[in-house]
Amino acid sequence: MHPCRLELTMRLSEQLGVLGGKNLTRDTPVVASDSELAAVHDAQYIKEVRKVSDDPSISAPDFGLGTEDDPVFAGMHEASARIFGGSLVAAEAIASEKTVRAVNFAGGMHHAAKSKASGFCIYNDAAAAIQHLLDSGVQRVCYIDVDAHHGDGTESLFWDDERVLTISVHESGMSLFPGTGFANEIGGPQAEGSAVNLALPAMTGDAGWMRAFHAVVPQLVRAFKPEVIVSQHGCDAHRDDDLTNLKLSVDAQRQVALDISQLADEICEGRWLATGGGGYNVTGVVPRSWSHLIAIAAGTPVPLRTYVPEEFRRYVLETYGKAVPYLMGDDAQLWWRNWEVGYDPADPVDRAIIATRKEVFPLYGLDPWFD
């Protein structure tokens, strides 16, 4: 979670010309107020974050603060509230029709719950964006989370809210933190089917992951008919990320951003708010993946065979001692079998897909085998 993830994404996007395009403007994130934070977090929790932020010698483990995943540090509240504020700025830009698309790649803190920090996440900016859109009059929001880890915090905050469909495509909790997000977790009693979890086995790879996404996500988004899509693009599912085991390429991460963009165009008149998330190969993967995300949101996708600027590669080597790939893609052979070609019960990816489809598709009038 080192801030160089953000610095290098900005630097690469600028050197690629992505940030200089006519379709893109930059707004300054604000430090969210306590009342804004309270839209999704308990007041006592906010007080505890402020307390440890002012005095890092103390901790509040009952609130997830001062743990191995969430060590306290001076300025924790302000830094986290600024990330939160960035997604509020993005949501307001869409709600006020200033734009139809916005990106806060510093955001995506999807593990933070109402009154507890978790998994490097203090304040849940993605949930804040969703809540702001709802409070601004949006009737239905779809949240799509493609981080390698289950988007448990965001899901929990809208667990019983039929206005929000949360979809998380992640590595199974059998092998990865936070150990949740199985197919039978489908939302609260007032909103069954509002939570969708696609838990994929370790070593799934590009072809299995893309097959799974396309066998579940587009069908449900079309059935739900959201007015806005909010997505979380943690890029920690990459094959060079040491914390996860899904083994994707940047090519696949770019493709799913394109797919979500197209869903927004098809269903939401283009309205789409994208955030970052996890990603722990901070020099070779994160800047490339999120530069693709920004470019796609701006309507100017960067081709995979584009060379990473030599100036950027030299800067990373001299500053961080890391070599960066030459290309903006991984030269992957990106191909997958559509669900229509049939179900293979011997394939663990197909078993994960059908488990999710059986749980949720009938609630939307869809056939889990054929739709």
What would the keywords be for this entry?
single chain, 371 residues, alpha/beta, 6-stranded parallel sheet, 11 helices, 6 strands
H/E element order: HHHHEHEHEEHEHEHHH
User: What fraction, in percent, of the residue positions are helical?
Assistant: 25-40%
Based on secondary structure, the structural category is alpha/beta
Q: Percent of residues in beta strands?
A: 5-15%
Backbone shape: globular
- Lateral strand order in the biggest sheet: 1-6-5-2-3-4
> Count the helices. How many?
11
N→C terminal distance: 39 Å
Mean pLDDT over all positions: 97
CA gyration radius, whole angstroms: 19 Å
Low-confidence stretches: none
Number of strands: 6
Task: Let me know the largest β-sheet.
Answer: 6 strands, parallel
What's the layout of helices and strands?
Layout: H1 4-15, H2 34-37, H3 43-54, H4 76-95, E1 101-104, H5 125-135, E2 141-145, H6 152-157, E3 164-171, E4 195-200, H7 205-224, E5 228-232, H8 250-267, E6 272-275, H9 286-297, H10 310-320, H11 348-360
Parallel strand pairs: 1-6, 2-3, 2-5, 3-4, 5-6
Helix pairs in contact: 1-9, 4-5, 7-8, 7-11, 8-9
Describe the protein's architecture and organization.
- The relative contact order is 0.14.
- The model has no long low-confidence stretch (mean pLDDT about 95).
- The protein has a 6-stranded parallel sheet with strand order 1-6-5-2-3-4, with helices on both faces.
- Helix 8 packs parallel to helix 9.
- The chain is of the alpha/beta class and about 375 residues long.
- It is about 35% helix and about 10% strand.
- The protein has 11 helices and 6 strands.
